[in-house]
Input
Amino acid sequence: MHSSVADEIVLDLKQQSNLGLLPKDRTILEREVMEFRPFGLDVQGQTIRDLSGMSIRAIVVYLEKFLARERGAVAGSQAAEELCRLLNQRIKDPVYHVTPDFLKNAWNSYTYEFAAYVYEFCEQMSGDPQFVFRGGMEKASSIMQVLARPFSLAQIYGMFPYFGNKFASGSVEFRVVEVTPISATLAMKFSDRTLRQFGPYKRRCAHLMCQAAQGIMAAVPVRVHGLPPATLTDLSCISNDDEWCQWVIRWPVQKQSAWRRRVRRIVAAPGEEGPSQVHPHASSLPNQAEAIVPQGSAGIRGIEAALPYPATDSTPPRWHVRWLLSGAVTGLALAVGLRVMIPSASWGEVILLGVMPMLVASMLTNRHLRLDSQQREALIQEQIAFVESRHEELREAYLGQEQTRVELRRKVTQLTALHRAGLLFSSTLDREALMQKVLEALTSDLHYDRAMISFYDPVRQVVRDARAFGVSPEIQAFARAREIPVTDPMSPEGIVLLQGQPLLVGDVREVWDRIHPLNQQLALLTQAKSWIAVPLKIKDRIFGSLMVDRIQAHSLTQDDLELMITVAHQVAIALDNASAYEQIEALNVGLEAKVRERTAELEQADRVRSHFLSHVSHELKTPLTSIKGYLQNLLDGLTGPLNEKQQRYLSRMLDNSNRLIRMIEDLLDRTRIHSGRLDLVPGEIELGHCVTDAVEQLRLLAQAKRQVLEVVIPSMPLGVWADRDRLIQIVMNLVQNAVKFTPEGGTILVTVRQETQSLAGVSVRDTGPGIPPEFLDHIFDPFFQVKQARSGVKGLGLGLSIVKTLVELQGGTIVATSEAGQGAELFFTIPLLPTIATTRGIASSDAPRILVAEDDPDIRQLLQDRLEGMGYRVQSAVDGVRALEAVRAETFQGMILDMGISSMEGLGILQEIRKLDQELPIVMVTASGAKESAVRAIGLGAQAYMLKPFDVDQLQQVADYWFRPSERPSSESADGSSMSGPLR
Output
């Protein structure tokens, strides 16, 4: 009864352990990536020795042979490359990616998880469901075959655990159940570490490993003694949820016993069974073994060469034969002598006496043979042990070198990942995008299973707003929604966030009781077994933590901790920069709103001020006109004679009235300039005459101060395109300034000259005190006055700023030069009229092509005829759509566009053209009442506009200026506005 209860308990435990296992038709290939390192050191720092590289090498070589035989040499040669490609897709850490040469190196060691992937891919590539079994028959290495030759099959199978450990070091437990001369019952069981690697795919993986082991067992008679393969019968299998894999192995009966073969080797003549002979000189073996180089199969061949079986002594002793012959001869002599000397002796006595020496010799010979055999077997065992020890030393040295190579590759990969992470972190200032890049880099580049950033509120002392990567959206939402209080400095959370120390947890169970319940729940959801948490801090301020984990316990090392400290430092800086940028952006948004609000207020105030100034100025002109008129009447004697003092007072009153009127005019001009309502009416002007007229109006003013006012003009007329009234205003303002700042008796020289082929210049030079150098850059600023040097001069300080604006509006420039005590010179330029041939004639093939877009047929014909008469080639478009099509299809040197053209608005056409061509000169044509739209067109990229009605002279002027670049004056302003005013 107790036995049945115990059986039921064992059965129940077995069923519980098998919960979650998948059937044998579910392969480990369903696991997207390998969960364990395939070779090198495991996460605990132990060397991986689960499966010998000989097993993987044999299966890869057999795959190449199989595919070459079944599908051709090309398929065979490419088999290993394709296998490596498939394997590397399942190895998430590139450090462990493999190559064909690496897989064929017998000195490697691998995990059983890696072997399961290899077997599955090989079976998949070959299409043979028995591939693993057949590949197992190829596994018997040369060294194993050599080591096994002195033994019978029963002995070999009896040493199954010994040879099994050569292929699997501690990952599989082997057991010999029974051995007979013709059969053996063997058992195999996987360690817990191996079963963890299989996971829910234990049944399928165990089936594959059993197939491989059975292949090895079946091949032993073939590989060692050249007999037919053994047959195997399954008694139990782990793939069927049994505890052990157990087989009965039967082999053909060997015709000669092991003892007789051993004796035969001892007594054999030279050359007989050479491979089984014993080396009589053991002293040479160490030197041979030390020469072995661990390079895959070549190293194994070297070990085979060093084994002690081939004989080197060609003359083995024959003493045992001589002893037997001597005994026989002695016995025969004694028998004959007894018979001769004692004829009465019986034949039994004679035979007994004759046999005795032979029996004695035989006994002595057998005893000596046994002793000699024991010595030789001891020597063989000693030398086998030495070779095995040397083989293991070399293998350990190779594995150490391979691990060093892996670690170097890991360091290079980590450094590369850190470099890439630094570039990624600095590539964005968007906080959300930055956190996403950080978490992606930790999982994809540094190969952690999951990563999470949490933020710490030091005021409330809570962890909140966590961002997780590598988990489901539900877990992400849970992590972000939780708020965890952090008050205990000794808790895992407190160590990181309160003490500011990094934390490495090898097994979460070690700190489970100290973790906050919400973190416990998160660990259960993510199945994290090992994790690292490091603080995110800038200087001494901790504002969060960075955490990575893996699903295997003790899978994170001190190297990972140091790496994460470096990463956390970069992440903290990047997040701090992103936060600062967000704060600056928020401030900028607020400032921009305030600026817009303030700007609107200022613009409104400016409009009110401008309106007020304009209104007051106009209102002041009326009484000032009356005052000035009555003063002039008084001075002219209309009210009677005046004495000298009255005349002097009235003259000063009239002068100040005139100054007040000029100040009002300056304010009005400044208001017009500021509001953009200052109109220019350009035309052809002879510069010398214009300047002379302006100067003559001020000659009386200069004479009043006994100043010399001279005008120098060239003999050849200089034609310019400018607004005559504004040009006179410029010259008068400059001359008035010179008169004001030049003392009595001084000289003012006005010079007109041609500066370049496209520019004329006007200079006004005085002999006054000059302008201090530090003020030269400011004299054209509104309301600026040099009070220190010219304290006796009164005014608003607007004159020169208005002059500068008027000069620049007409395409010129103005500069001031001065030396202290040497007077000052103000010089401005104005564009000359382009040289235009009086008769253009028929347009040549290289003449500029102009597109006229005008829907009014009369104006369109007028423009076309006039432009062709000027020597242009003209193409016309009757609406906006055709105009755009023409611009897209052909090249033009200029375009005249009607603002009100049909099918599309003129401004819309202008914008579309500017998307296609930024350089095409465009002149807008509109009615005088649509001037605001024309000004807006200049802002959208038009070069000039003409207001209807315009005359043909104005058309020729603007066309030649804009459509003939070679004739355009070189002093255009930077925005091309030298001819962007209205043409009426």
Q: What stands out?
A: The radius of gyration is 55 Å. The chain has a mean pLDDT of 78. The CA atoms of residues 429 and 580 lie 9 Å apart. The chain has 31 helices and 25 strands.
